[in-house]
Design a protein that fits this description.
Largest sheet: 2 strands, antiparallel
Number of domains: 2
Distance between the termini: 80 Å
Strand content: 5-15%
Structural class: alpha+beta
Number of strands: 4
Shape: elongated
């Protein structure tokens, strides 16, 4: 493990292998490597999909409410216009 002073100079050599042009500038990073562990994403796809569906339903409900209020105001304007 190394700390890289300028991440923009990293070039991909294929797969997960990276290259740095000046290896002398690399400094050892603090931390530990442990075998027998699998690195996983911090995202649970099922939870995120459920939250996305919930957000979509809320958005649709709000859009329907706005449409309903717009129709109600349209009726009010047309009815008041007939009386006046």
């Amino acid at each position: 493990m190394f700390d890289v002073p300028d991440h923009t100079l990293l070039t991909q050599q294929g797969g997960t292998l990276l290259n740095y042009p000046d290896m002398k500038k690399l400094t050892p990073a603090s931390g530990t490597l442990e075998s027998g562990y699998l690195e996983q994403s911090n995202v649970d796809p099922m939870t995120e999909l459920t939250q996305l569906i919930n957000a979509q339903r809320q958005l649709e409900a709000n859009a329907n409410m706005i449409r309903y209020q717009d129709q109600t105001l349209g009726k009010l304007v047309s009815e008041v216009g007939k009386i006046g």
